[in-house]
Amino acid sequence: MKSQAQTGQSETAHVTAPLAFPPRVAQTLPMQADPNLYDDWPYLNRPKIIWPGSKKLAFWIAPNIEYYEFMPPVNPKRPGWPKPSPDVVGYSQRDWGNRVGHQRLMEMLDRHDLRGSISLNVAMCQHCPEIIEACVERKWEFFSHGIYNTRYSYEMDEAQERAVLEDSIATVQAATGQRIRGYLAPALTHTERTLDLIAEYDFWYTCDLFQDDQPQPIKTKTGKLMSMPYSLEVNDVITYGALAMSAERYADVLMRHFDQLLEEGGDSGTVMCIPLHAYLVSQSHRIKAFERALSYITSHKDEVWFTTAVEIAGHYREHYWDQTLNDIRARGLATAGTGFA
User: Fold this and answer.
1) 104-125: buried (b, 16+ CB within 10 Å) or exposed (e) per residue?
2) Residue-by-residue DSSP string for 144-195
3) Per-residue pLDDT band at 13 (split at 50, 70, 90)
4) Could you give the 3-state DSSP secondary structure of residue 97?
5) Which H or E run includes 306?
6) Cα angle, residue 269 at apex, residues 57 and 304 outer, rounded to 5°
7) Which of 19, 138, 167, 311 shows its CA 20 to 30 Å from the CA of 49?
8) Degrees to nearest 5, angle at CA 140 with 139 and 144
């Protein structure tokens, strides 16, 4: 199968259909109180999770390796760039991340013996194959972040979503030899069928939900899909962008975030993820402060499992999936149906 990304095109490129309902009709539709993607499950007194080696905290790091098209196709629900196109400044800043920033970040992670789990716009396999090859050499994990970060899921029909998933699986398999098991929707955009589809295609985890500090089964029609903790609170897009943190402030936040999760992990194992973007964290004035936080975290080797997302998902599916569902049922918290149903 030849990837649509190889031709520079995708079935997601021509999403120009009008909204499903005229605005007045849409306003009269009943609001859904809960998307029903997972059962309510109070944090207190859960059954104990112990990570391999009797570790309290599973730590993984998620460099986002992304491609932003200079002039992306128009999506009716969201512009491709915050500024009007052509956004030369935004495009070149992200290009710096792939040219310079990723190499700087990769070398820093090497110094701390950490493997990344790559949130990958799979078109990068064609646009920047040297980056992909460098990650493969280091035995890093890859999971899908869509084809391009400027091709949103909004307004896709089912055939288009399936094409993205099939393209992702085939393209990464051909470039790396890996069968991807994780998914993060491009630019965090979804349809009501997204999670059901990735479960159907035998993905093990989604990073699209932010409801917990431990994994949890997702209510899909088929498959065995879990929610993988992937924090927005310590995502460098949020901390450097929306929250305007200094590099030193971000480092302090990461260490305090880690300390809290490590303490709670003594009761039942927790997960910490740091989502990163090379065009942000790898800037010359930020990288040393970030490495200071990483040095602090990696100094806790006796208590922390430094791993990848797919390894966390595999261990959880084998050892704690049934335990979680049994506890939810025992507490009388299990509800019927699946997501959006």
Assistant:
1) ebbebbeeeebbbbbbbbbbbb
2) E--S-TTS-STT--HHHHHHHHHHHHHHHHHHHS----EE--GGG---TTHH
3) very low
4) helix
5) strand 304-306
6) 20
7) 138
8) 135
DSSP helix/strand/coil, 135: helix
What was the pLDDT predicted at 6?
39
Q: What is the Cα 14 distance to its own chain's centre?
A: 25
pLDDT of residue 30: 56
Which whole-number Å values give the CA distances from 55 to 48, 293, 305, in the listed order? 12, 20, 6
Residue-wise pLDDT tens digits, 246-301: 999 999 999 999 999 999 999 999 999 999 999 999 999 999 999 999 999 999 99
Q: Are 172 and 94 in contact (CB under 8 A)?
A: no
Per-residue pLDDT of 98-124, as tens digits, reads 999 999 999 999 999 999 999 999 999
Closest CA to 211 of 193, 224, 230, 225: 230
- The answer to which of 76-90, 108-122, 186-200 has the lowest mean pLDDT is 76-90
d(CA 148, CA 166): 14
What tokens appear for 249 in the block?
A: 């402030």
Rounding to the nearest 10 degrees, give the CA dihedral for residues 176, 179, 185, 190. 150
The SS3 call for residue 16 is: coil
**What is the distance between the alpha carbons of residues 125 and 304, in angstroms, rounded to a whole number?**
32
Per-residue pLDDT at 25 exceeds 50: no
Find the distance separating the first CA and the last CA of the chain, reported in whole Å. Answer: 34
Q: Is 158 exposed, middle or buried (0-12, 13-18, 19+ CB in 10 A)?
A: exposed
Strands 141-144 and 57-65: unpaired
- State the amino acid at position 208 in one-letter form: D
Is it true that the peptide bond before 86 is cis, omega within 30 degrees of 0?
A: yes
CA angle 65, 66, 68 (to 5 degrees): 160
pLDDT tier, 341 (very low <50, low <70, confident <90, very high otherwise):
confident
Q: Please give the structure tokens belonging to residue 316.
A: 């959880």
Distance, in Å, from the CA atom of 179 to the CA atom of 184, rounded to the nearest integer, reads 15
- DSSP 8-state class, residue 37: S
State the burial class of residue 14 (Cβ atoms within 10 Å of its Cβ: 0-12, 13-18, 19+). exposed
